[in-house]
Automatic annotation (TrEMBL):
Keywords: Cell membrane, Membrane, Transmembrane, Transmembrane helix. Residues 167-292 form the Type II secretion system protein GspF domain. It is a multi-pass membrane protein. It is found in: Cell membrane. InterPro entries: T2SS_GspF_dom. This is Type II secretion system protein GspF domain-containing protein. It comes from the Bacteria. Pfam families: T2SSF.
Amino acid sequence: MDALIILSIIAFWFCCLIAMKHFWSFLREKRYAIDHVADVTHIDPFEKKVKKKNRRAELFSRITNYADDFADLGQRINFFSENHMVEEWLRKSGNPLKLTVSRFQGLKIFLFIIGFFSGLLSMVIGLPFSQYMIIFNPVIGYFIPILLIRREAKKRQALIRRDLPDFMDTVSTSLQAGVSLDHALREVIRYFDGPIREEFTRFNQEIDLGVPREKAYRELLKRNDNDEFQSLIKALIQGLDLGIPIAKTFKIQADDLRQIRQEQVKELAAKASPKVTLVTTFLIAPVSILMIAGLMIMNMLMGENSIFKLF
């Protein structure tokens, strides 16, 4: 009977592994089919992602309607989240959930109240550590929107930093072939995904609406605090004022950015060695010494030459 149970468990896990393998193959083939259909029919997958984000933002807006009732209170209780700070975070994160400053301020208070009632409910039910939950849950609810929006802003700037060298090289090549800047941007961004495409798509839309080019560049600077991106836009503004060839600007900026990235990688590698040494010194070495000392003590107490056998 025991052997049958063991065989059944082995067969179960074997079937689970086979199912996971086939599911992974299905996902891979599905992704390949979607990309192939997009290439053949000239459908932009990025537009589907935008529509999906908009649906998510609409659903989130319906859920957080109650946050508007606490907007005034949230703007008065603005610890670590003053209005100008929230506006900057939303702008730099791309505002994927279509939040306004007032709704964000109300969302903090709304989650604070939910955290309080959840802690109170845990105390009534008698959950472990419920006396701490009634204190920490409201605090966590208050800071969750702040931490999430700041993390989203940093993540978005990191994605721009990652894609920027390839984007500048591609635009530089198009410009050297005689294509105008506006046409080059419209064509190149079709082959990119993520924040850098969103930013230059919005830039092109502002140019189409008649916004002066320098003002559109300034808006790009306001929406992004990435040093490399700001360096590029400032160089474009300077080139616009002084008449410097734009293709040369993109090429120089791309080379400089790759050099900066190489230096950053070397710096991170240099910082990793002391961290490894620190872990080895304070964790691995003491544990190894304790294990050796423990074996020696056990040998002295329970081994063949135990001190108890001498008496």
